[in-house]
């Protein structure tokens, strides 16, 4: 069930990357293997949040926008302390509950069906309509961003992605997807997208709740059903993006499969359109020349209906690629939403390429350009970064805000190619560390396109941006084990990417283990750390290492930064990453292959305590842990509990989870805090 709904049975199909691209083999370039000559320097990063703002490395402190993710507040970031994480880890379990460490509290902030837009109706499971759902909180909350209202310590905007729907957990009497009514399909479409919800602090605590008011200025829903998105960048208006309904190729209805994302230094939210392929049918009748391009994104081109098809063409003809073959190209982008301007039209930025975008996280480089790091979440896909043409403009002025809103519309897109520094013979696919004691090496950012100039032979800039996977193939990018969330630490400038797993690594004719993806049939995933040479986020070379190789700490194939493995929590399938203001790395998981529920973990990532990973919470049965978001004052951890009860055979009538309210399950965003007001984790 998870496979069908979450990614259209992706694992049942061969991975779409059939390129002969190199994996890390025995290529050890002497120059490349020279160990990180330069450590990451001062962080050219935006640092702002509750109560203030600052940019390190820029001439003047920024006071640009109201918030960013997990960034230290107006105060100076605290120095990283060894042993900063003092909470008692929670034990792995299979309970139908959220479990948290002793001394903490947790509560539901908002759940599926709760009213969002002013005047929205209360949820009624048995009388749901698309019109109601389009005004209520959507299904399957994934990314969570919390952006404080300007000058305000106790009001904020909660921005949440609604990645996909589980129709079997939404509609009483559900039998099959084919039996859904058109109205039910439209409910599902309205349950996709994003929500913007004004929230308020409860008392002086770290607890938050939605503001109840008849006038909710900021609250919005964006859906797959009817919301308008504007395309920007070099591919906007190109022939690939034109359709009968949009002959100019500049305006898209809806956003699909919004997975993770990020909060920008200028106070907007980025949202990654991920497994968009599963919503389309009819590719068997698409133009022959287009079929390889569709197939490269996992769209089935050999049958009218892929297995488990949602058949949204029954509600909107545009999802039938036999009639509208370009409609698929209008999804798979990074979406930017300005939650502070309730009249704004969200944009899809073609300059950041078209992939199965997990998310995008932005850092301001020392030279003022902004850099977005991105993962393409599928087995054997690539890591990317985007560097803006324009420079970030600090300040609160309208001018600065208008300027910064254009930063992601033009720039240079790169893909990563990495090499290991240990002899290939020492990487045997078991996860055994090589003789130098580290999985590590060097990497290059290979330029794909800059503005309207393509660096890929035979592809125009619009080709590269619309079929970015093919561009990555052409330049020999490195096949990774499902790159999910990629996020720079604003404390060190190092970048952390979750490689969630890859059951096919080294299986059959698939690429075998290499130093950057060192285990065959990789069930548990790993964390990939990037250190840009000279601390320059706009540069083209870096060193990398694997600080954490996930799984059962008792197993020989796991690694926790060299920390005593008897003292760490088991972790499997890292998905989303975040930082607290002390620079500790927080990791949420999706698909625990160790038999326990998914959870949220935290670990110091520098110093003597590096790798001392502890489980902070567990989510209910069948759920995935998303978000997470630690507020810049460190007083609240927001976590999205996605698809509770998503277990094969379960339905809303026969649920496998009844969290959080009893009866049946509801995806919900929770907040966890310390009643004594202290910083979470520490
Ligand atoms: Fe939607 Fe990559 O998880
Ligand atoms: Ca090595
Ligand atoms: Ca994810």
What are the SSEs and their pairings?
Elements: H1 2-7, H2 30-33, E1 46-49, E2 52-55, E3 105-111, H3 130-133, E4 141-148, E5 155-162, H4 182-191, E6 193-201, E7 208-210, E8 220-222, E9 228-232, E10 251-253, E11 258-263, E12 269-273, H5 291-295, E13 334-337, E14 347-349, E15 361-364, E16 369-375, E17 379-381, E18 383-391, H6 398-404, E19 411-420, E20 440-450, E21 453-454, H7 461-466, H8 468-474, E22 480-481, E23 483-488, E24 495-499, E25 526-532, E26 541-549, E27 559-560, E28 574-579, E29 585-589, E30 599-603, E31 614-618, E32 624-630, E33 636-642, E34 668-673
Parallel strand pairs: 9-14
Antiparallel strand pairs: 1-2, 3-34, 4-5, 5-6, 6-7, 6-8, 9-10, 11-12, 12-13, 13-14, 15-16, 16-18, 17-22, 18-19, 19-20, 20-21, 20-26, 23-24, 24-25, 25-26, 26-27, 28-29, 29-30, 30-31, 32-33, 33-34
Bound molecules: MU-OXO-diiron and calcium ion (2 copies).
Radius of gyration in whole Å, from Cα? 23 Å
**Count of helix runs:** 8
- Principal-axes geometry comes out as globular
The main sheet comes to:
11 strands, antiparallel
Strand proportion, as a percent range, falls in: 25-35%
Count of beta strands: 34
| Number of individual domains | 1
Small molecules in complex: MU-OXO-diiron, calcium ion
Structural class assignment: mainly beta
The percent range for helix content is under 10%
> Mean pLDDT score, rounded?
91
Gap from first CA to last CA: 38 Å
Which segments are poorly predicted (pLDDT under 50) over 5 or more consecutive residues? 23-83
């Amino acid at each position: 069930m998870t496979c069908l709904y979450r990614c259209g049975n992706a694992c049942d199909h061969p991975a779409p990357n059939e390129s002969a691209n190199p994996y890390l083999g025995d290529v050890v370039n002497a120059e490349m293997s020279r160990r990180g000559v330069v450590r990451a320097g001062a962080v050219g990063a935006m640092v702002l949040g509750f109560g203030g703002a600052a940019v390190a490395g820029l001439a003047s402190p920024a006071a640009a926008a109201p918030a960013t993710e997990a960034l230290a507040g107006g105060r100076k970031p605290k120095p990283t302390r060894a042993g900063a994480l003092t909470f008692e880890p929670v034990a792995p379990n299979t309970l139908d509950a959220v479990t948290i460490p002793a001394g903490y509290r947790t509560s539901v902030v908002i759940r599926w069906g709760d009213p969002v837009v002013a005047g929205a109706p209360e949820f009624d499971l048995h009388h749901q309509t698309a019109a109601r759902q389009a005004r209520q909180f959507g299904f399957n909350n994934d990314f969570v961003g919390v952006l404080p209202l300007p000058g305000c310590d106790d009001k904020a905007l909660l921005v949440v992605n609604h990645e996909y729907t589980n129709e079997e957990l939404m509609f009483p009497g559900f039998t099959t997807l084919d039996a859904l009514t058109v109205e039910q399909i439209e409910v599902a479409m309205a349950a996709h997208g994003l929500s913007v919800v004004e929230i308020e602090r409860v008392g002086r605590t770290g607890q938050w709740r939605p503001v109840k008011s008849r006038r909710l200025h900021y609250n919005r829903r964006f859906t797959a059903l009817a919301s308008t998105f504007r395309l920007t960048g070099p591919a906007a208006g190109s022939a690939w993006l034109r359709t009968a309904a949009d002959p100019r190729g500049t305006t898209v209805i809806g956003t699909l499969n919004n997975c993770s994302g990020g909060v920008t230094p200028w106070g907007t939210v980025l949202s990654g359109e991920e497994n968009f392929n599963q919503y389309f049918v009819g590719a068997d009748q698409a133009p022959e020349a287009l079929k390889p391009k569709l197939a490269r994104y996992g769209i089935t081109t050999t049958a009218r209906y892929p297995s488990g098809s949602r058949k949204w063409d029954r509600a909107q003809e545009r999802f039938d690629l036999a009639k509208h073959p370009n409609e698929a190209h209008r999804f798979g982008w990074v979406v930017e939403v300005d939650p502070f301007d309730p009249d704004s039209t969200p944009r899809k930025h073609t300059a950041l390429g078209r992939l199965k975008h997990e998310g995008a996280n932005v850092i301001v480089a020392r030279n003022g350009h902004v850099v977005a790091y991105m993962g393409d979440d599928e087995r054997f896909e690539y890591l990317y970064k985007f560097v803006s043409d324009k420079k970030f403009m600090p300040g609160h002025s309208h001018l600065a805000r208008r300027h910064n809103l254009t930063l992601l519309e033009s720039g240079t897109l790169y893909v990563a190619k990495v090499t290991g520094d240990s002899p290939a013979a020492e990487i045997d696919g078991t996860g055994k560390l090589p003789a130098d004691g580290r999985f590590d090496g060097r990497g290059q950012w290979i330029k794909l396109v800059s503005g309207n100039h393509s660096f890929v032979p035979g592809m125009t800039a619009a080709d590269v941006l619309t079929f970015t996977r093919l561009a990555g193939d052409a330049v020999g990018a490195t096949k990774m084990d499902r790159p999910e969330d990629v996020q720079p630490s604003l404390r060190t400038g190092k970048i952390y990417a979750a490689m969630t797993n890859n059951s096919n690594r080294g299986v059959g004719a698939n690429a075998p283990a290499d130093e950057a993806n060192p285990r065959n049939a990789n069930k548990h995933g790993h964390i990939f750390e990037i250190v840009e040479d000279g601390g320059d986020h706009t540069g083209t070379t870096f060193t990398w290492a694997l600080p954490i190789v996930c799984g059962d700490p008792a197993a020989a194939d796991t690694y926790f930064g060299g920390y005593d493995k008897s003292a760490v929590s088991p972790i499997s399938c890292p998905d989303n990453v975040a930082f607290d203001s002390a620079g500790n790395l927080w990791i949420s998981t999706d698909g625990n292959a160790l038999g326990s529920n998914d959870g949220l973990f935290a670990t110091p990532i520098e110093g003597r305590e590096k790798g001392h990973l502890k489980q902070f919470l567990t989510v209910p049965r069948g759920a995935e842990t998303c978000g997470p978001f630690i507020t810049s004052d460190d007083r609240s951890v927001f976590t999205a509990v996605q698809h509770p009860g998503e277990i094969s055979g379960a339905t809303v009538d026969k649920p496998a989870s009844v969290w959080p309210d009893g009866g049946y399950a509801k995806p919900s965003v929770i907040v966890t805090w310390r009643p004594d007001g202290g910083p979470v984790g520490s």
